Amino acid sequence: VLDPQYGMHAWPCAVVLAQYLWVHRRSLPGKRVLEIGAGVSLPGVLAAKCGAEVILSDSEELPQCLRNCRRSCLMNDLPRVPVIGLTWGRVSPELLSLAPVDIILGSDVFFDPEDFEDILMTVYFLLEKNPRAQFWTTYQVRSADWSIEALLCKWKLKNIHVPLHSFSADKEHLAGSPLPGRHTIEMMIISLARSDGT
Q1: CA 75, chain centre distance (Å)
Q2: Which one of 14, 88, 98, 154 has the lowest number of neighbouring Cβ atoms within 10 Å?
Q3: Buried (b) or exposed (e) across 1-16, using 16+ Cβ within 10 A?
Q4: Does residue 63 sit in helix, strand or coil?
């Protein structure tokens, strides 16, 4: 398990994903959004502020991260946003009972290669239950050797790369924040692949 402190900071990927949500804010009212690995919940909180029906989640094994999600909601006048424990790769009662979703958010969840398959298994499960949903995710390139391509094929998922310049996130500083800084960040949208592989 990663150090619980990882979920206690706004990481560069969260700022980039929040920028994407802000650019698409007019499409968010009424959308059902689940943020996985939420940590401080910047993308999920922003989606809720823009009118989405949001559920925040982080590992049920990291209660202080769940408390941090709740604290972020309270600090942003969002006391009714549900916070639930979801552990990647585990089919739990919370996962089974989730309401339908349109968008799954995940910023920098592809941090540790040991978690990649558990993340994609969880995303696949959610997309199977919600075939029109999409997983919007940002990640920091940490190693050229780390790839999820084979796992996407295994789990019958496809991805579309979203260029950062297409939503004005290709800058060193966003929204008055020193983030994302000089990190190499990518964004992709993952969805179910059709039976013909497309």
Answers
A1: 20
A2: 154
A3: eeeeebbeebbbbbbb
A4: helix
HEC letters along 171-195: CCEECCEEEECCCCEEEEEEEECCC
Give the pairing type, strands 173-174 and 177-180. antiparallel
CB 21 within 8 A of CB 106: no
Tokens of 102: 């349109």
> What number is the average pLDDT over the span 163-176?
81
Q: How many CA atoms lie within 13 A of 125 on its CB side?
A: 19
Q: CA-to-CA distance for 58 and 60, rounded, in angstroms?
A: 6
pTM, full prediction: 0.90
Burial 129-143, CB ≥16 within 10 A → b, else e: ebeebbbbbbbbeee
Euclidean distance between CA atoms 1 and 114, whole angstroms:
10
- Whole-Å CA distances, 145 to 1, 112, 119: 21, 12, 18
* pLDDT one-digit tens code per residue, 34-78: 999 998 899 999 999 999 999 999 999 988 889 999 999 999 999
Residue with the two structure tokens 């739990």: 92
What are the strands of the beta sheet with 134-140, ordered from one edge? 83-85, 53-58, 32-35, 103-107, 134-140, 185-192, 157-161
CA atoms within 13 A on the CB side of 36: 28
